């Protein structure tokens, strides 16, 4: 195949005495005319390869599969539930409020048909942009449920604008808050604490995505009048989360090292709200830091700390400090030197979420990479299991200390995310639902296989029927940042399953499925273990007949894109096809772009002499070998991705095309999306287009697979 000619230079960097070629450096600049022209040619080549009646049929079927309601994690305020939902017919989820007396009732188990909820639309973002790329990315109601702060993202950007909706009047208030990313919001009095980044012009342009800050905004005031509460000018990569205890007496600030869970915790004692709102009687000092008393509670960034809730001076946290699988602990702020007391002890289940609901702890954990739910007394003496509908995942919990009802959003491979009430005998849907397929036709199983070093690795397999002829298998993984891959619903999966394909999802080291030690075993200099785990999964699938020889395709995004990119260049003989989405593909320069410095605790940094060798050994872009017949590969990115710089995907694709030229390998196909970011907030039609291209590619190029077999 003849590929477009990429702009190439003789760029060579000398890093720690080692010459490192970077021939496609110009592709890092999206504004370079040569880069723009090359991207246009690559997209034209991709369209020529993938556009066909088959692809049109796939897109039509995907639109049908997407017409399934999917709900977010709820926020509960008395007899009101706030949540977002998309029924698949709109570009973006809508923010709703459901209310009814049943939300206060903690009596007998109430069936979905008996809740009698009244639902109203609060904010519909679908009319805010012609292409549907404006999305609600965060929301937080006030304590009474009268007002809701919500964040809007445009074109898939991580940048958010915070606005406010008045529930009673149904109007959007005048408040507008800018310079927000990864928003954390906590109401107090007639305003709220929130996290934001520096106003442009106050720091160098390349630093604007760092130096997170905590501010307080009073409803009705201009952002210029907001009060700075806390920041760390000495630590630009620290990111904050804010929480207010249920009795409104303490602000809890979690400080995280970039994308790491390792945290410090600080506490601010909150006085009763004065007429002017929090801090109305205080003024910032000359350094710009408000005079509020910020007291350290946990220091050192040595372990994960996540606030649960607090009341009457007692604060509850989930933490893996001294407990790799996690436990629930508490501090008593009335003590002169508050010390940790264990409430829910560590077990072999990994604790991933917790809240206080009706005066009891509600704890979500993972057992063999799927969820379980338990209710505990606040002293840890009484444990009560809550049954789940199936092997699946609790996406999050919705509850408050003083509310009788608690809720969880549950999903599985065959269950769309739905809000369910926590009852004594299990989770109960808050409304009936219908699906365009029969979940009983699909089988989910969990298997274990040995990695290269003998470590047992778990993997989920999903299929519609057993095919003893060696079916095609789509294998996915992630293996990083303490992220757990658990059973979850994706409409596009059914395109593959209904065609007789198998889905495989491996729980690799580096993830969070099996606690902090599992995560640490796959980070920094141990990252090769993650790739070994993934390669071993593909080998096991073929050796056991779960997939035919040459019929394993691999797919991953972001850190998962790094995973499949590294495995592609290390074992090009093993895979029938590769889909590499928004990859971190240049491990020597990733930290120079967007928010890459947030990932240094996970990956290491090539600027450090000790880190450079292990990063160079597996960096996908730097380990492509000329003359190698790499398998058919689809590299996908977005020009407006402000999290993982798209230049890395472009460089990787260009290098693969160069290396594969003249061999029997390939094709190497690059797809560059416009007006879409890293993935969050992508409208339904853009999801359909992307998924149609992905499956059109797999159905066409996966070795030994014909369209008639798969469709």
Mean pLDDT score, rounded? 92
Shape: globular
Q: Tell me the helix content.
A: 10-25%
- The CA-CA distance between the termini, in Å, is 27 Å
Number of strands: 40
Rg, Å, rounded:
25 Å
| Cross-sheet strand order for the largest sheet | 33-34-36-35-37-38-39-40
Structural class computed from helices and strand pairing: alpha+beta
β-strand percent reads 25-35%
Largest sheet: 8 strands, mixed
Could you list the spans in which at least 5 consecutive residues all have pLDDT below 50? 106-113, 280-290
Number of helices: 11
Describe this structure in words.
The protein has 711 residues and is of the alpha+beta class. It has eleven helices and 40 strands. It has an eight-stranded mixed β-sheet, sandwiched between helices. Strands 3, 4, 5, 6 and 7 form a five-stranded antiparallel β-sheet that branches. Strands 8, 9, 10, 11 and 12 form a five-stranded antiparallel β-sheet that branches. α6 links the parallel β37 and β38. α2 (53-65) packs across α10. The longest helix is centred in the N-terminal third of the chain and has 18 residues, at 33-50. The radius of gyration is 25 Å and the shape is globular. Mean pLDDT is 92; it is low at 106-113 and 280-290.
Features:
five-stranded antiparallel beta sheet, eight-stranded mixed beta sheet, globular, 711 residues, alpha+beta
Q: How would you summarize what this structure contains?
A:
This protein is an alpha+beta fold and 711 residues long. The protein has 11 helices and 40 strands.
């Amino acid at each position: 195949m003849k590929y477009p000619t990429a702009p190439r230079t003789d760029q060579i960097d000398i890093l720690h005495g080692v010459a490192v070629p970077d021939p496609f450096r110009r592709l890092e600049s999206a504004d370079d005319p040569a880069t723009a022209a090359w991207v246009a040619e690559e997209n034209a080549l991709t369209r020529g390869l993938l556009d066909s009646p088959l692809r049109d049929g796939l897109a039509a079927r995907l639109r049908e599969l997407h017409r399934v309601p999917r709900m977010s994690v709820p926020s509960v305020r008395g007899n009101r539930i706030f949540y977002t939902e998309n029924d698949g017919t709109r570009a973006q989820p809508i923010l709703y409020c459901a209310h009814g007396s049943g939300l206060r009732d903690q009596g007998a188990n109430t069936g979905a048909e008996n809740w009698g909820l009244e639902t109203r639309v609060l904010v519909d973002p679908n009319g805010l942009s012609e292409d549907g790329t404006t999305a609600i990315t965060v929301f937080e109601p006030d304590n009474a449920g009268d007002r809701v702060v919500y964040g809007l993202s445009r074109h898939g950007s991580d940048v958010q604008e915070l606005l406010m909706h008045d529930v009673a009047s149904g109007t959007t208030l005048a408040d507008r808050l800018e310079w927000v990313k990864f928003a954390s919001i906590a109401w107090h009095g007639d305003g709220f604490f929130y996290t934001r980044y520096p106003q442009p012009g106050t720091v160098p342009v390349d630093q604007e995505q760092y130096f997170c800050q905590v501010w307080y905004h009073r409803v009705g005031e201009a952002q210029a009048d907001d009060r700075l509460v806390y920041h760390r000018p000495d630590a630009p990569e620290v990111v904050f989360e804010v929480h207010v205890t249920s009795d409104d007496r303490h602000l809890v600030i979690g400080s995280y090292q970039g994308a790491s869970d390792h945290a410090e915790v600080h506490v601010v004692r909150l006085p009763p709200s004065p007429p002017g709102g929090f801090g109305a009687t205080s003024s910032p000092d000359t350094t710009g830091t408000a005079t509020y008393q910020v007291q350290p509670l946990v220091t050192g960034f040595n372990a994960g700390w996540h606030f649960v809730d607090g009341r009457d001076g007692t604060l509850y946290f989930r933490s893996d400090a001294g407990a790799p699988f996690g436990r629930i602990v508490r501090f008593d702020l009335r003590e002169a030197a508050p010390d940790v007391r264990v409430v829910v002890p560590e077990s072999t289940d990994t604790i991933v979420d917790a809240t206080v609901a009706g005066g009891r702890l509600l704890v979500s954990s993972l057992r063999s990479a799927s969820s379980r739910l338990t209710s505990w007394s606040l002293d840890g003496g009484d444990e009560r299991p809550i049954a789940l509908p199936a092997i699946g995942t609790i996406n999050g919990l919705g509850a408050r200390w003083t509310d009788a009802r608690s809720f969880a959003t549950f999903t599985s491979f065959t269950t769309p995310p739905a809000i369910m009430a926590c009852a004594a005998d299990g989770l109960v849907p808050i409304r009936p639902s219908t699906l365009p397929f029969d979940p009983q036709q699909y089988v989910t199983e969990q298997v274990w296989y040995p990695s290269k070093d003998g470590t047992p690795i778990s993997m989920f397999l999903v299929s519609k029927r057993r095919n003893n002829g060696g079916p095609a298998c789509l294998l996915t993984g992630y293996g990083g940042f303490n992220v757990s891959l658990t059973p979850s619903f994706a409409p596009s999966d059914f395109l593959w399953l209904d065609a007789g394909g198998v889905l495989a999802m491996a729980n690799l080291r580096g993830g969070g499925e099996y606690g902090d030690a599992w995560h640490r075993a796959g980070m920094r200099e141990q990252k090769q273990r993650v790739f070994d785990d993934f390669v071993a999964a593909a080998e096991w699938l073929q050796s056991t007949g779960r997939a035919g020889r040459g019929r394993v395709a691999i797919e991953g995004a972001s850190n998962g894109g790094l995973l499949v990119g590294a495995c592609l260049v290390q074992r090009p003989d093993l895979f029938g096809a590769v889909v590499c989405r928004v990859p971190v593909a240049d491990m020597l320069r990733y930290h120079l772009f967007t928010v890459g410095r947030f990932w240094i605790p996970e990956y290491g940094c090539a600027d450090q002499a000790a880190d450079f060798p292990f990063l160079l050994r597996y960096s996908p872009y730097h380990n492509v070998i000329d003359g190698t017949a790499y398998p058919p590969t689809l590299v996908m990115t977005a020009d407006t991705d402000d999290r993982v710089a798209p230049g890395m995907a472009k460089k990787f694709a260009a290098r693969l095309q160069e290396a594969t030229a003249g061999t029997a390998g390939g094709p190497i196909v690059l797809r560059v999306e416009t007006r879409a970011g890293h993935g969050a907030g992508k409208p339904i039609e853009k999801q359909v287009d992307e998924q149609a291209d992905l499956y059109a590619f797999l159905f066409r190029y996966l070795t030994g697979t014909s369209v008639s077999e798969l469709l």
